[in-house]
Amino acid sequence: MKTNKITCIEIFIFISVTLSAQLKVLNNGKIGLRSTTSNYGDIQINIGDGDNVGLCIFKTNWNEPALKIASDEWYTFLTDAKSTPQRGIGFMYGAVCVSEKDYIGEYGGALNIVQTNSNYYPMGLCVTTQSTDGLGIYSQHSSSTVNGTSIYSRVFRGTSLAFASGLGYSNYNFYVKGDGTAYTNGILITSDSTLKTNIRTIENPMQKIMKMRGVSYKYKDISENLINNEEVITNYPVDEKRDSKNRETTKIDIPKLEQSTLKQIADEDANLEHIGFLAQEIEKIIPDVVRTTVNGTKAIAYTDLIAILVEGMKEQQLTIESLNERISFLEKESQPQKSKVNAPNNTMIEANTLTYPVLEQNIPNPFNVSTAISYYLPSTITTAAIYIYDMNGAQLKCYPITEKGKSRLIIRGSEFPAGMYLYALITDGKVIDTKRMILTK
Fold it and tell me: Does residue 284 carry a pLDDT above 90?
C-alpha cells in the first residue's frame, strides 16, 4: 500500500512538471503555451513549421478539423483543414492572399484573391450592401502628385468581360470586353452651358468636312486574345469524396455567358470591318477632337464631330436654298415676258459682268439659326463691308469683304438677340443698298 502511494505521488509530480513546462499561467493572468512568457498577447502559443502544428479546432460530428492555423518559414495559413486543406487565407509580409497555399506571395497586391474552383463559390469576391447610400466597393488612388490606377481589370480573351453591370438579375446593361469594346444602353455626356467658357460657333465647317476621309478597317491581331484561361490558371483538382459535409452553398444569380454567343461575337470581331476615321489624319484637320491615350496611341472623340457635321449641314442647306432660289429665277427668266426691267437690287446676280455693286435680300428671311446675304463686287471696288444696324440706327457689327465677284456672307443667329435688323453694303465710302432681316428664336 505504501509503495502504491509513493508511485501515485511520483506520477502526479511528473504530470505537474510536464504541464508547467508546456502551459504557463503567469502572475498577470496571461497564458503561455509552449512558452514561459506571453509578451505578444494575453495568450501566446509558440509553434514550429509544418502542416500539423499550430492551432486546430476539431469538429467532432464531421470528424475533421473545422479551423486550423499553421505556419512555415514565410507565411501563416488559416484553413478549414480537411475538406479544402490547400485553400484558405494566407498572411505574408503584411499582404493577405485568399487562395490556395501555393499562390501565397505570387501576386503583388496587399489583398490577393485567387479563385481556382467554382464548385461552391463562382466569384472571387462578393460584396453586398443594403445601407442607405452604401458603397459595395470603394477604390481610391490617393496621391495628387503621382499618377496611378484606382481599379485595373485584366482578362485573357477578347470576348471575356473585363467589367460588367446589370440592373436586377440575369442581364448585362453595361459591359466592357477584353478588347476594350464597351456596350451600353445609352450614354450621356455633360454639356451644360454653365460649365463652359470661350463658346464660339464653328467656322468653315464644310471646309473641314470636305477634308475628312472616311475609311473601313480592321484592328491588328492581339496575341493576348488567343490565350485560354486554362493556360493562365490551372484549376485545382477536387476530390468529391473528401467533401464529407455534402452541403449546398447559396449562390448569387450571375447572368450566364453562353459560349455559343461568345463564339459568334468572336467571329464577328474577326471578320467584320469597322468604319471610321484615322486619328492622325483627323488631327491635321480638327486637332481638337483627337487625344493621346495612356499607351501612346491616338483616339478620336467621335461625339465631338457631331457639332461639325450639324454646322456643315446648316451651311449646305443655305447653299441648297440659294440654288433653289436661283433655279426658280432662271425658270421664270426663261419664260416669255412682255417686258424686262434691269433691276439688280431685286433680281439674282447672273454673272460676273456687272460694273456696279449689288446687295441681295438675305435667305432665308426670317431666320433663327443662320442666313446668307449674297452680294456682288466688281473688280473696281477698293474697300467694302456689310454693316449690321439695329432699328434705331446703331451699328452692331461690321463684316469686311474682300472677295470680288459673286459671293455671300453667312450670319449666325447666335450672334444677335431676336429682333429686326438693317444691313447695308458700303463700298469705297458709299452706301450701295440697305435691307431688312428678321431674326427669330
Answer: yes
